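# step 3/5: fold
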Amino acid sequence: MNDTPGWVTEETPDLYGAYPRLEDYQIVALTAVGQRRRFVKGQTLQRAGEPADEFLVVLEGRVLVLQDNGSAPHVIGVHGARRFLGDLGLLTGQPSFLTSVTEDAGQLLAIPVEKLREVVSRDAGLADLMLRAFLVRRSLQLTLGAGFAIIGSRYSADTRRLRDFAARNRLPHQWIDLENDTDAERLLRELGVDRAQTPVVLWRGEVLRNPDNEQLAELVGLRPASPPRSVCDLIVVGAGPAGLAAAVYGASEGLATVVVDSVATGGQAGTSSRIENYLGFPTGISGSELADRAVVQCKRFGAELVVPAGACGLGHQDGQHVVRLEGGEKVCGRAVVIASGVHYRRLELSGLETVEPTSVYYAATEFEANLCQGDPVVVVGGGNSAGQAAVFLSQYAGQVTLVVRSNDLGRDMSRYLADRIEGIDRIRVLVHSEARAVRGQGVLEEVVAEDLGSGERHSLPAKALFVFIGSVPHVRWLGQQIELDDHGYVRTGPQLGPGCRLLETSRPGIFAAGDIRSGSVKRVAAAVGDGALAVRLVHEYLAGS
């Protein structure tokens, strides 16, 4: 792009801390390690799809931030003097989803990323300012639909899979609905794509026909094309709170650390709209923000994150542990932390298979909430996850019905959360009840719930069903290599007998942390503690081996 279209623009207001101005002392500190450069009108400074290796601060002139996915670009932000460019990818190594072009001639300050890390390590205020801005910018990009496009039918299971994957990984994207978007068919014709080949992903001139998650991840730079490091000190399987904590502590203490996860960073916690009882966050924090902050920490200390990369086997070779991945690669390590977590149980309901691809969800984030604006929804479950989902969805849905098996809403749910639910008019609670059936042709129309006392059944209008009914440990990939308890959770430490190292499994050098561990406390803080403790025990094991 050589010339800027003739837009008449005003500088974008600083929304929620997304576009702050740097102070004089901060610019002085950055100038000491950076380089001043002049730019001309219409010059591209950063291009969507390319990684940024410099932190750019505008000193004179103005810069336009464009949503440019290969079609007609349009302005979504304008920045003047003392503002900085970029987004979360600058800290994580992921390519940018936006293009930055100068509106007029001016001057900027360019700081190499390596030098930037030196400055922010000495200035916590600048580090917090940048991280806050980048996190809010990513949230705004998700809302705007910046980034790549997914063209597909709302009735397609593969469309749902791609959209879920993008949402879980917090990848900015736009969904073009084949049923409701008048431009969808025209776009397919222009791309030379038959409707039977959908869903397709469009990004920077490339078209992927019904890609798998790995292909999408490589296209947008989430996962590098090169395989993960084949030999390391510590392999962490699972990138939830326990796994990310193990990665941060392991890498920061000098262990060559590789983290793999089959879906996304954040685990189940990453799908939580707000975690309100996590120490140090009095107003709460969303699971996605907690995950993004942890990923930045992992990258800062040099841990290698590989997503998506599902573990499919565990072995032993030449004195090292071997984790086999679904793509055919294998990673060898001196120690392993199993933090692959759990997944929500699937409801066994009459008619579920006909509506599950389009209308049944096992997470309640902004992505899912935006799909049911003004619609009635049903949430099934009686724990904190179900309660948090109900509260969050009540801000979007027309009516939320919470179906709880227990007689008392507060039996399995934190008291503060139960009290909040009882005070929200849009939430209707059916206690001592269970979902029995769903009805709908392709999309959900209603959920049938039964009162367990009277046997009376209620037909609940619903466009979406959210399920939080307990969890199942993700242990299939372990085969018969590790001892499990009667419920399928990994036995560790004293459960295996006297003298066994805490958190260590039945195989020396392999530890379990977080929800997958037998007897664990299903809380984010406990999982983080497990991850940190596991690394200390890894050091003890390596020192004695």
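# step 4/5: annotate
The mean pLDDT is 93.
# step 5/5: archive (pending)
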